[in-house]
Amino acid sequence: LTWQKYDVEVDIWSAGCIFAEMLEGKPLFPGKDHVNQFSIITELLGTPPDDVIQTICSENTLRFVKSLPKRERQPLANKFKNADADAVDLLERMLVFNPKQRIQASEALAHEYLAPYHDPTDEPVSQEKFDWSFNDA
């Protein structure tokens, strides 16, 4: 949306979309093109907050986003009625417009829903942080 540099937060969004598909058995945002996809996203997650809209670099994207009707975020529990409440809570934390406000991978792994599968002794952690410098080009 903002054309900022990709970071791990985009992976959390992607994992959230995959997780939602696992819960429901079909794609969460089955858009036909980027315009339709964004419309479907905002129907569920509401209009992006102002702090996200202010980071949009493309004038065309900004104009498009501002032209859409204001929408309120829908509780994901309404869409995922048969899902475990902890699963829905995790999904709510993954699908947040502002990348800096999304749950972090380490937090997601420690989330109550994943607790039965989380074993820190069997989850290797890289000694080095990933080098994102290729993103600076």
UniProtKB/TrEMBL annotation:
<dbReference type="InterPro" id="IPR000719">
    <property type="entry name" value="Prot_kinase_dom"/>
</dbReference>
<dbReference type="GO" id="GO:0005524">
    <property type="term" value="F:ATP binding"/>
</dbReference>
<keyword id="KW-0418">Kinase</keyword>
<dbReference type="InterPro" id="IPR050117">
    <property type="entry name" value="MAPK"/>
</dbReference>
<keyword id="KW-0723">Serine/threonine-protein kinase</keyword>
<keyword id="KW-0547">Nucleotide-binding</keyword>
<dbReference type="Pfam" id="PF00069">
    <property type="entry name" value="Pkinase"/>
</dbReference>
<keyword id="KW-0808">Transferase</keyword>
<protein>
    <submittedName>
        <fullName>MAP kinase HOG1</fullName>
    </submittedName>
</protein>
<dbReference type="GO" id="GO:0004674">
    <property type="term" value="F:protein serine/threonine kinase activity"/>
</dbReference>
<feature type="domain" description="Protein kinase">
    <location>
        <begin position="1"/>
        <end position="114"/>
    </location>
</feature>
<dbReference type="InterPro" id="IPR011009">
    <property type="entry name" value="Kinase-like_dom_sf"/>
</dbReference>
<keyword id="KW-0067">ATP-binding</keyword>
